[in-house]
Structure formats: C-alpha cells, structure tokens
Amino acid sequence: MSAVAHPLIDALGPVADSLGATLLAPDDLTEADLPLHWEGELVGGLRRPDLHHALERLLEAAEQEVGTPFADMDRNQKQEAVALLNEWGAFTLRKSVEDVAEAIGVSRFTVYNYLERAEAGS
After folding, report:
1. How much is the pLDDT for 93?
2. What's residue 122's pLDDT?
3. How many whole angstroms from its chain centre is CA 122?
4. Which long-range contacts does 77-80 make (Cβ < 8 Å, 24+ apart)?
5. In the prediction, which pLDDT does 54 show?
C-alpha cells in the first residue's frame, strides 16, 4: 500500500491480516481482487488469501481465542478449539481432521468425538 493510506484501508488492515488477505493500492488491483470504494472513489483493494495456509491461520486463531497453546490445553479447551474450528469451516478443507488432530495432540477419532459433541451442543 502507499505511504498515505486511506482510513478505510487502515480500518481493514487487522481484518485482512486475520484472514490472510492482502490490501492493495488502486493501481495494483487485478480483476480478481475486490475493489474498495469510499464515497464513490476507488481507494484500494483486497486480494483474497492463499488458501494453502488457511488451516494454519485457523489453528492459530483458535489458540488465540481459547487463550492457550494447544500443547497446554486440557480436554475441555481442545473441545472448545475443535468447536470453533468447526464453526469457522475448517473441516471443509481436505485432510483437516488429520491435521487438526496432529496440531492439538489427539487422535482423529478424538477429533470426530469432539465434532459430534459440538454438533450436539448446537
């Protein structure tokens, strides 16, 4: 982005960071990017995130939301993290159950049990 950012761009910075998206200057936009307009003026754009690292970002967000690293989580916190990941759509990604199980230090079977518990509680 340019040195003088627009207030809309400044406001969207944390959102873009948490999603893994990139904020762009108006001159850097392509047709695939989302243009950002303010009072009819193009002030920048948003490039969608690379989904290759989406699960990693979701895992980091779950740790932050629960407030404890996975290695230090008790069973209830791990269940909460799995429920959050489920709400955020993490389990629509290929091999996500295996990857989540490895990240939180449980078996795939345990992740499926946590998912069943989360679904029953909804």
Report:
1. 87
2. 60
3. 21
4. 78/104, 78/106, 78/114, 79/114, 79/117, 79/118
5. 85
Two structure tokens written together for 75: 């069973």
Amino acid identity at 52:
H
Going from the C-alpha of 79 to that of each of 68, 111, 115, 119, the distances in angstroms are 13, 8, 8, 11
What pLDDT shows up at residue 2?
Answer: 43
The residue ranges of the chain whose pLDDT is under 50 are 1-3
Nearest-angstrom CA–CA distance, 112 and 23: 36
What's the rounded Cα separation, in Å, for the pair 61 and 85?
A: 9
CB contact at 8 A, 21 and 46: yes
